[in-house]
Amino acid sequence: MTATFTMTGPTATHTPTAGATVQLSAVVKAFSGHTALNSIDLEVAPGELVALLGPSGCGKTTALRSISGLESIDSGRIVIDGVDVADTPTNKRDIGMVFQAYSLFPHMTVLENVEFGLKMRKVAAARRRERALETLDMVGLTKHRDRFAHQLSGGQQQRVALARALVTRPRVLLLDEPLSALDAKVRVQLREEIRRLQTELGITTVFVTHDQEEALAVADRVAVMRDGRIEQIGTPEELYATPANAFVADFVGLSNRMPAELVDGQVTLHGCSLNLLGDPMPDGPVIALVRPEDIALSADGIAGTVISSSFLGSLRRTRVRLFDDTVVAIQHEVERHPLPGEAVTVRLKGAPVSALPPKVKK
Amino acid sequence: MAAPLSPVEPAPASAPAERRPKSANQAVRIGAEPSTVARRLILGIIGGIFLIPVIAMIEFTFRNGLAGDYTTSHWTGLFTEDSARTYRGLYQAIENSLVLAAVTVAIVLVLLLPTMVLVHMQFPRLKRTLEFICIIPITVPAIVLVVGLAPVYSVVVQVLGGSTWTLAFAYGITVLPYAYRAIQGNLDAIPVKTLSEAASTLGAGWLTVLWTILLPNLRRGVLAASFISIAVVLGEFTIASLLNRRNLQTALLQVSQSDPWVAVIFALAALALAFILLLIIGRLGSATPSRRKS
Question: Which residue from A258, A344, B208, B273 has the highest number of Cβ atoms inside 10 Å of its Cβ?
Answer without folding.
Answer: A258
